UniProtKB/TrEMBL annotation:
<feature type="domain" description="Luciferase-like">
    <location>
        <begin position="21"/>
        <end position="218"/>
    </location>
</feature>
<dbReference type="InterPro" id="IPR036661">
    <property type="entry name" value="Luciferase-like_sf"/>
</dbReference>
<protein>
    <submittedName>
        <fullName>LLM class F420-dependent oxidoreductase</fullName>
    </submittedName>
</protein>
<dbReference type="InterPro" id="IPR011251">
    <property type="entry name" value="Luciferase-like_dom"/>
</dbReference>
<dbReference type="InterPro" id="IPR019923">
    <property type="entry name" value="Lucif-like_OxRdtase_MSMEG_2516"/>
</dbReference>
<dbReference type="InterPro" id="IPR050564">
    <property type="entry name" value="F420-G6PD/mer"/>
</dbReference>
<dbReference type="Pfam" id="PF00296">
    <property type="entry name" value="Bac_luciferase"/>
</dbReference>
Length: 301
């Protein structure tokens, strides 16, 4: 089912894939905020980067308007009660500036799970476990005391909010690339992160958006759509340097790329928002300086 995308205001964020030490991490958070970005988000990994919750707490402590988030937590490696507790704490300490991103675990994550003594189930099982986690986390953040004995998770009289703490409104981002995960994002999340290849053309993104929009949302609201840019003009992350032809990809209409002047890049994003509904755009920290002039053009629109 194809639906007319809702036009939302743009939001822009930076994915912090590196792990600078103390003062440099604080400086990065301040710089992201000062350059007009709305969010600073972090991937979740055992062997590289900082641990997400303490690092995001540190970033929130040195900023005032910047939202912080996980992009995304690997659902298998933490019990949902633990995730809800960490999320509630960070939401309170940041004055409501935390966004929780969850995923079922990307293909090839066996090694990461093995570091923690965990197996790596087939995709269907991991997705089922994620859906169960989402339901439990939402109930806990709403202030419920929860007892569950599900196929994947057990909890006895679990609660995560300290006495007197109101329910926490933590926006939920769910990342997915396959049809089922995209529909789950459309049904359960506030934000759907479209896991499409960076060189995908618009038809691929449109199909992903249609899966998200086809979901039956109990509250009747619509989901915010997110994508990650992998090239800003000729600027690419170091791991892609010399490996891609940005001009050729831009000429083909690859949606993970913007090109031209800041005004031309802004026009490309406006057109994609009009056609696809994608309004939340992320860039890696290596691209933030190159993309900042585009953020300045589109801020508040």
């Amino acid at each position: 089912m194809t639906t007319t995308p809702e036009t939302r205001p743009f939001r822009f964020g930076v994915v912090a894939g590196q792990a600078p030490p103390g003062a440099a991490w604080s400086d990065l958070a301040r710089r992201v905020e000062s350059e007009g970005y709305d969010t600073l988000v972090m991937p979740d990994n055992v062997s590289f980067g900082h641990a997400v919750f303490p690092a995001l707490a540190a970033a929130a402590a040195v900023t005032t308007t910047l939202r912080v988030g996980t992009y995304v937590l690997a659902n298998d490696v933490r019990h949902p009660v633990q995730v809800a507790k960490e999320a509630a704490t960070l939401a309170v300490l940041s004055d409501g500036r935390f966004e929780l991103g969850l995923g079922a675990g990307r293909p090839g994550s066996e090694r990461k799970n093995a570091m923690l003594g965990l197996g790596f189930d087939r995709p269907g099982v991991r997705v089922d476990r994620l859906v169960e986690s989402i339901g439990l986390i939402k109930r806990l953040l709403a202030g419920e005391t929860v007892t569950v004995d599900g196929p994947h998770h057990r909890a006895a009289e679990a609660s995560v909010l300290p006495y007197g703490t109101p329910p926490q409104q933590v926006p939920l981002l769910v990342a997915g690339g396959g049809p089922r995960m995209l529909r789950i994002a459309g049904e359960h999340a506030d934000i759907a992160a479209l896991g499409v290849p960076f060189d995908a053309e618009e038809s691929v993104v449109r199909a992903a958006v249609d899966h998200v929009r086809s979901a039956d949302r109990p509250d009747g609201t619509s989901v915010e759509l997110n994508m990650n840019l992998m090239a800003v003009g000729e600027t690419v992350p170091r791991y892609l340097a010399g490996r891609i032809d940005t001009a050729a990809l831009a000429a083909r209409g690859a949606v993970g790329i913007v090109s031209g002047s800041p005004e031309e890049m802004a026009d490309q994003l406006r057109e994609r928002r009009e056609r696809l509904g994608v309004s939340y755009v992320l860039v890696g920290d290596e691209l933030m300086e190159a993309f900042a002039p585009v953020v300045d053009v589109l801020a508040g629109s």
